[in-house]
Design a protein that fits this description.
This protein is about 80% helix and about 0% strand. With about 230 residues, it is an all-alpha fold. The chain has one domain. The protein is globular. It starts with a helix and ends in a 7-residue tail after the last helix. The model is unreliable at about 225-230 (pLDDT under 50).
């Protein structure tokens, strides 16, 4: 029995090591170039115009990849979506990608547990949201925290897989909950795309202010529930 346990332990460690190598390679050869490409909205829009529906499917795949590799920032993708596709279509595509990425993440964590979460997040960050696992108002708190701009959505997506939240409820969180932050980014990107620079500055200033307030509220929630000040 002990030998079987050791075999499983080493197999799990080997799998995690392989996963870590894969993540590093994915970032170096795909993630970093992808962020660079997305961060040049004019080039991205030209590529979209040249590739039609293929560009839409590819963009959704890019967003899924970004959610899975939680350390890749999501904001450049959302701004680029608004710039290249417009506010409405950009929002739909970004939400579709983040939802699918979150769902894949959820099931991977259900399969591999805390070992996978620790690949992307420190113990401090994980502990900061543990109150979401034990609170009697967990579902309401999850939705509220998800909807606050500036909160760590990818951390929440990974952590949700550690809880007993029903899958349909999580699907609701990772779609509705992302709408406020995605909309502000895509609307700002759309304003840049139409050269409405005054509107773009106003949208991004508003987004920055709301995100700062949201982050402060999130940290207050964490402290109130003894989760710690950082997220």
């Amino acid at each position: 029995m002990r030998q079987d346990g050791n075999t499983k332990k080493w197999a799990a460690l080997g799998l995690l090591a392989l996963l870590a190598v894969g993540i590093i390679a994915a970032w170096q050869y795909v993630g970093a170039p992808l962020v660079g490409f997305i961060s040049d909205p004019a080039s991205f829009r030209a590529w979209v115009e040249a590739n039609g529906w293929y560009s839409r499917l590819t963009f959704v795949g890019m967003v899924i990849f970004q959610v899975l590799l939680a350390f890749i920032p999501g904001e450049p993708f959302e701004i680029a979506a608004g710039y290249a596709f417009g506010a409405v279509e950009g929002t739909i595509l970004a939400i579709a990608g983040t939802a699918m990425g979150s769902i894949i993440t959820f099931w991977l964590v259900r399969r591999f547990g805390m070992r996978l979460v620790r690949v992307f997040f420190s113990e401090e960050k994980i502990n900061s949201v543990k109150f979401l696992k034990t609170s009697s108002a967990r579902n309401y708190l999850f939705l509220i925290v998800y909807m606050i701009p500036g909160t760590p959505k990818d951390l929440l997506g990974y952590f949700a897989g550690l809880t007993d939240i029903p899958f349909p409820v999580f699907c609701l969180f990772c779609t509705l909950g992302r709408i406020p932050s995605v909309v502000t980014s895509t609307v700002g990107g759309d304003a840049l795309g139409t050269r409405s620079y005054g509107a773009a500055i106003a949208v991004f200033a508003f987004t920055l202010a709301v995100s700062a307030a949201g982050l402060g509220l999130y940290q207050w929630i964490c402290k109130k529930h003894k989760g710690g000040p950082h997220g």
